Amino acid sequence: MICSCRSLQASALSFLLFFTSRRGRGRDMSCPNSLLSNPRKIATLRLSKVSGHTTELLEIQSDKPTCHVLFIPGNPGVVSFYKDFLESLYELLGASASVTAIGHISHTEKNWEHGKLFSLQDQIDHKVDFIKQELQNIELPIVLVGHSIGSYISLEMLRSLEKVTYLIGLYPFLMLNPLSKQQSNIENVAESSILSALLSFSVATLGLLPQCTLRFMLSKSLGSSWSDTAVDAACSHLLQYHTFRNMLYMALMEFRKVQ
């Protein structure tokens, strides 16, 4: 699930600052006041074909990077949720690392995959293919940062990619909690194709409401911990049948795999 931007930043920042400072010896790797006072560099959305799948990427390119941070989201794998986090991380690292977040297949605003369902292994293979396709030839070390089930995906990527140097897991989901009612309820729904389809259809129906109404409803129900960016991402991505259906299917695969 989505955690607050601030808590994610604190978890990742300490290691990344240590890593980039070692890589950048001889350079001032602190985050100077001049950088903080300048307008924040904005993460840009890009669509890329990765192993035949249209993929959403959020990117911030550094002029003088010492490493490349590849962020693997949790479930839902909507990169727009993490926009504030990525921009803050880039800024706090003193612009010393290029940062890319890669979304999961069919956790997208548009139904590029025409309703097809993708397993956890599909998502792992997709991320490995992305590195081979776009990052294999860069001369910088790659640091994986995974959130929730993204940490599990990153671990599996680490097994097959020599290019990856380090891995950071943020709130890693690596095992089930048999006492969690929430996990049990999600698993029960996800195991039923009928319930999954009905719930996804019900959620998608909400997406037909006017955007201003959706934003108001989500802001009130989710509380102040969700930023405006996260609420916008929920409106544009989560309330889509194909996205929600793939979220539930991926959750089912997670429960089976981590058992």
From TrEMBL:
Source organism, top-level taxon: Eukaryota
InterPro entries linked to this entry: AB_hydrolase_fold, LDAH
UniProt subcellular location: Lipid droplet
Keywords: Hydrolase, Lipid droplet, Signal
Signal peptide: 1-26
Family, as annotated: Belongs to the AB hydrolase superfamily. LDAH family.
Protein's recorded name: Lipid droplet-associated hydrolase
Source species of the chain: Salix suchowensis
